[in-house]
């Protein structure tokens, strides 16, 4: 696996922290890693974005790349249009990821929001970029009520486009999981039609970077370089 696309079933569910954990384990395994953020929204020029957060947690050895930054916290195409800026299309994302893959053992492409959020006004999405790359998609999902439906829908969208569904990671596993969360842990693989590959604990991004890197192996399954199992 040279390129892995990281998407989600929504926003603010732990994609960036999950991406950092995958990057940290790859670095610990002696691999060179790049993280590509096609479109960063809602962050002002000069402010740290998702790529900076991944590098802070996983290590400065991670190569970071951001193709575009749009000011308002909206879907990339909407934010670009409102700002009068040129959006980023799937072909540009695929070209940038492919170039990074010639120089790194692993390239992580972190999307914005869900799989079908629009990048441009032609309707291009992260799914289109993944299909152009022939890259698998790792889906980050919440723990609680409603996650089975949104994960199943994302899985259907991937399979309809003949994109490999690498697996699911719960992006913020609660310290005291409720009944729905506990049941979802068992039910997610069936709903997704893909393996459950980890649970990242809530608050993981607040750990000191050294602690984050030490603990990451316990959050992710062997397929992602860790030791986690259900």
UniProtKB/TrEMBL annotation:
Main location: cytoplasm
Signal peptide: none
Database matches in InterPro entries: DTB_synth_BioD, P-loop_NTPase
Pfam families on file: AAA_26
Binding of Mg(2+), residues: 16, 50, 110
Binding site for substrate: 41
Annotated family: Belongs to the dethiobiotin synthetase family.
Name under which the protein is recorded: ATP-dependent dethiobiotin synthetase BioD
């Amino acid at each position: 696996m040279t390129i892995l696309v990281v998407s989600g079933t929504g926003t603010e569910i732990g994609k960036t922290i999950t991406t950092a954990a995958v990057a940290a384990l790859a670095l610990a395994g002696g691999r060179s890693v790049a993280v590509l953020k096609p479109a960063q929204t809602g962050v002002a020029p000069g402010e740290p974005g998702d790529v900076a957060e991944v590098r802070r947690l996983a290590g400065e050895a991670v190569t970071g790349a951001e193709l575009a930054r749009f000011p308002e916290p909206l879907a990339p195409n909407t934010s670009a249009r409102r700002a009068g800026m040129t959006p980023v299309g799937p072909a540009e994302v695929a070209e940038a990821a492919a170039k990074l893959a010639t120089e790194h053992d692993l390239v992580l492409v972190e999307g914005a929001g869900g799989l079908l959020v629009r990048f441009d006004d032609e309707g291009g999405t992260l799914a289109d970029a993944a299909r152009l790359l022939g890259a698998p998609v790792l889906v980050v999902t919440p723990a609680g009520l409603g996650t089975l439906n949104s994960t199943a829908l994302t899985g259907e969208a991937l399979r309809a486009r003949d994109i490999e569904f690498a697996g699911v990671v719960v992006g913020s596993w609660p310290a005291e999981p409720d009944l729905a969360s506990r049941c979802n842990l068992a039910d997610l693989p069936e709903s997704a039609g893909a393996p459950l590959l980890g649970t990242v604990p809530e608050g993981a991004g607040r750990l000191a970077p050294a602690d984050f890197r030490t603990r990451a192996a316990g959050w992710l399954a062997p397929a992602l370089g860790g030791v986690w199992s259900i």
